[in-house]
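Consider the tokenized backbone below.
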């Protein structure tokens, strides 16, 4: 049975090679405005309906057996079919396809090689996803994970060959072979989840994520790792307009907790993700109520006189204040926290940064308010 002809390029309905077959399995990208983009969006929505995906897979499987193969050029097509199976949650069928097409042997053979290309990485990833969903991971499969766990950010241009939803669910559910490595894995999951934060919304994984955080807390996972994941969920209410979702976590409060428990070693080991969280503070839109002003004041107090924490606050929070400074301090002015504003300008900002702000804004009235108490 052929797929819906209105949703595919009819010229490729009977492909002559694997390149044409692959084009048949990927919907058109939306890169235009106006009515045409609306049509393309509608086609993409229809393309991913379960019945259409099933007919597409059946057609592709028939074509795979007929087309000539040259130097593994069928692998991208098989990976695309595997991703379509994941889209409709038919994991067993996807796993069997990979085994029948020799990709299980391909992945295990690749483990003996020192370097992998992008096709090998994506094949290995889809293999362990499907295996974890069906028969469970075995010893060698943990070695596969070690080879690919830092690769996700380099796959952004290959989204037709892996499921972003499966990335999030896999890293949140994964339990290392050595239980002692759980804390390390949960921290390794932080930058992955933060990078894929928009997909948490897209696939409605908010409740799933919250439940996983609660489970980690009950299991005694390192509090700092748990806080990092709470920060990710706390950001969502600010970044996205989410109907019917009120994050149980407060972004500024969680940043305060992170810096309270983070020691020198933690800040050095996880420099990039802590920096990413703190860098968002100057652009945070939800400092509207007195308790969030208080949380920020407490954050400053926690970091003050700790050389490493002060370095993080200066580099990733206060160095970014510019045209957003007045909007950021507005709730501090409303709550008459002039001493805190004075500290921001004269303790946390460098002299150069403060003079730059004074050129942008007339801060004289603030100074007068501070002097008057």
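A designed sequence for it:
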């Amino acid at each position: 049975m052929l797929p819906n002809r209105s949703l595919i390029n009819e010229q490729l309905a009977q492909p002559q090679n694997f390149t044409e077959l692959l084009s048949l399995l990927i919907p058109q990208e939306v890169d235009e405005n106006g009515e045409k983009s609306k049509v393309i969006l509608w086609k993409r929505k229809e393309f991913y309906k379960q019945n259409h995906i099933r007919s597409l897979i059946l057609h592709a499987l028939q074509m795979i057996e007929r087309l000539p193969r040259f130097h593994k050029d069928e692998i991208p097509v098989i990976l695309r079919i595997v991703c379509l199976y994941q889209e409709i949650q038919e994991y067993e069928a996807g796993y069997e396809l990979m085994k029948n097409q020799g990709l299980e042997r391909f992945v295990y053979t690749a483990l003996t090689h020192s370097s992998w290309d992008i096709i090998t990485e994506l094949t290995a990833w889809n293999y362990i996803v499907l295996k974890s969903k069906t028969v469970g991971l075995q010893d060698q499969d943990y070695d596969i994970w070690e080879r690919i766990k830092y690769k996700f950010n380099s796959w952004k241009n290959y989204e037709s060959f892996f499921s972003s939803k499966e990335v999030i669910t896999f890293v949140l559910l994964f339990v290392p072979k050595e239980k002692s490595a759980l804390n390390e894995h949960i921290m390794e999951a932080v930058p992955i989840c933060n990078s894929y934060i928009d997909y948490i919304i897209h696939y409605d994984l908010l409740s799933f994520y919250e439940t996983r955080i609660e489970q980690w807390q009950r299991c005694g996972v390192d509090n700092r790792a748990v806080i990092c994941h709470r920060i990710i969920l706390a950001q969502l209410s600010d970044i996205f307009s989410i109907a019917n979702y009120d994050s149980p976590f407060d972004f500024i409060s969680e940043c305060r907790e992170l810096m309270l428990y983070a020691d020198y070693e933690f800040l050095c080991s996880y420099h990039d993700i802590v920096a990413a969280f703190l860098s968002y503070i100057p652009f945070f839109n939800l400092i509207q109520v007195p308790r969030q002003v208080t949380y920020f004041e407490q954050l400053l107090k926690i970091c003050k006189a700790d050389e490493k924490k002060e370095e993080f606050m200066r580099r990733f929070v206060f160095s970014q204040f510019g045209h957003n400074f007045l909007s950021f301090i507005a709730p501090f002015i409303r709550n008459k926290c002039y001493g805190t504003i004075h500290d921001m300008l004269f303790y946390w900002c460098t002299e150069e940064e403060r003079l730059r702000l004074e050129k942008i804004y007339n801060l004289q009235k603030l100074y007068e308010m501070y002097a008057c108490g």
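Residues 50-66 form the longest helix (17 residues).
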